């Protein structure tokens, strides 16, 4: 059937379903000639069986009438209008209203399209990797490359690692074997070295293009950090999240290597993550009871070597020199005392009038979106990190006063000065 006529009806009396059907067939007979006689249309399969759902509401009979139609669109519409003309069922007045004429072909087509999409996805998932098949055929077992060992540490490696212009550093022997299976014979494994990178790899990496290829888990991040600190690396590739290099297919390896990032950019990412973690730890520390803060400080105290003492003395001299250059109003110093433990930041203009107060966690976002020279000074109950210092300098901030200074401050931009609460209170 092509169409489905849906109509609602109401009869001013209690009747049966066959009474309604009889009224529809009887009152439409001969209205539009023999061609539209419902009984003959049924016999010719031009319309289907009439279906009725009916119930009683008090003394009335109400329900839904449905008639499938195999006529063309115009004939079906004409048939529907003819059915709507029925105004009596038995001795009772009735009303029939066409609610919808549904094109069954559209619904059927939508189901076909949806099913086709499902089947296409299934075919794609089962589609063979032709390149991998060709590689497997071309690499006969007797001529496939074997893992070698290099250096005093006897590190697992591919046979071409020493003569290749580019090398891939991976975590373990299984990674080397998996990469070699797909034709990557310029690999070498750290083989369990998580903190100290083997000297063989350090030397090997000096005159080559180096790609670090690590697992997509926490362990991979830790190995990557140590590797970037100790070895010349040009690019970094990662396995998909929570997957290991030894598990990857040829397609997944190629995709990971095509998406590798410059090592310097990855280094900055890791540094940014560390600074964010330091800020979170400082914020947490502010919420600890005083006894816990004292215990925590005692845990990290180490005896100072002579060289460390010299550095500390230089820092103290620089601090006093910096503080002597600052002119901070008394009411601002009072605010410094009051802001401790609140994890808030106060932004001032050049007249030391308060512009706004925000949470420390929102400070970087505020700086990032602030207009140039829109603020003069900021005091905040948090850590002055290199990232905050750089952005403040870019935005023309003259003074930053924080709870403490991060351990990785190496430079600053612009004329921004910085100090801690203890410097001024």
Verbal overview:
The structure is a single chain. The protein is α/β, with parallel strands linked by helices and 425 residues long. It folds into three domains: 3-106, LOR/SDH bifunctional enzyme, conserved domain (Alpha-Beta Plaits, 2-Layer Sandwich); 143-259, Dna Topoisomerase Vi A Subunit, Chain: A, domain 2 (3-Layer(aba) Sandwich); 309-424, 3-Layer(aba) Sandwich (Cytidine Deaminase, domain 2), CATH 3.40.140. 43% of the residues lie in helices and 23% in strands. It is built from 16 helices and 17 strands. The strands form four sheets. A five-stranded antiparallel sheet has the order 2-3-1-5-4. A five-stranded mixed sheet has the order 9-8-10-11-12, sandwiched between helices. Strand 15 (377-384), helix 15 and strand 16 (399-405) form a beta-alpha-beta unit. Helix 14 (363-369) packs parallel to helix 15 (386-394). The longest helix is centred in the middle third of the chain and has 24 residues, at 263-286. The chain is flat and about 100 Å long. It starts with a strand and ends with a helix.
